[in-house]
Amino acid sequence: MPGIDWSLSRDTTTERVIGRLKELIGERKFGPGDKLPPERELCSLLGVSRPILREALQALAALRLVRIRQGDGVYVTSLKTDLLLEPLRFVLRLDPTAIEQLYRARQVIEVGITELAASSMTPEAERRLEEILAESEAQVEDPKAFSRTDIELHETIARLVTNPFLTVVIESLNELSRAGREFTCTVPGVTPRALEEHRRIVAALKARDGRAAGRAMKEHLENVLAAWQSAREGAVGGQGAKEGESG
């Protein structure tokens, strides 16, 4: 195909085919919904065998970058963030320690974002944050609804910084942590405490005090992580007790 460099390094392994196709998709040589060239043509363009190409395409399908339609061809997916995060969600389900690392990543990123957001507060932002707090107060007894509103508050704060990259990062972290949030919100006392912590964060933002807002966010995220760890230990301990009883 004209205008596209299909060349690979001398070591034409499956990994390098995957890498080249990812580059072409990332460079938007093939955009969302586009159909890739037929298998035979791809093999010729990339200089690889069909088994190597098929293995590479299966890997890209697992990453949700392409969709293989039997008898039709290979298409680039929508490339929407939610779709691309699915493999990471699977990792989080397999490895509970990954969830802890996810929470720690939030601590590193969100504290700084909250500090920056204080200088970008507007009357409209104040009103929206107060509305979210009111919604949260009405949802304290509904863990799932509370966790959704919790995500909205954090994303509203992130958008105040008006940095598209940071916004995408926060939205991605929030999407990955959705299940963990819902689980943590079921722990007695967590939602009322989180609401009070949210109020302190918003109060500091309204006062345009970035340092205080950052400290409040740091304390909030540390408490959330501690609640998740406690809930997980309780769940694991309870499962062990059940297994012991059944034995």
From TrEMBL:
Pfam families named among the record's database cross-references: FCD (PF07729), GntR (PF00392)
Gene3D superfamilies: GntR ligand-binding domain-like, Winged helix-like DNA-binding domain superfamily/Winged helix DNA-binding domain
Protein keywords: DNA-binding, Transcription, Transcription regulation
Signal peptide: none
Boundaries of every HTH gntR-type domain copy: 11-79
InterPro entries per record: GntR_C (IPR011711), TF_FadR/GntR_C (IPR008920), Tscrpt_reg_HTH_GntR (IPR000524), WH-like_DNA-bd_sf (IPR036388), WH_DNA-bd_sf (IPR036390)
Cell membrane listed as a keyword: no
Top-rank taxon, per record: Bacteria
Keyword presence, DNA-binding: yes
Record GO terms (molecular function): DNA binding; DNA-binding transcription factor activity
Annotated protein name in UniProt: Transcriptional regulator, GntR family
Source organism (scientific name): Rubrobacter xylanophilus (strain DSM 9941 / JCM 11954 / NBRC 16129 / PRD-1)
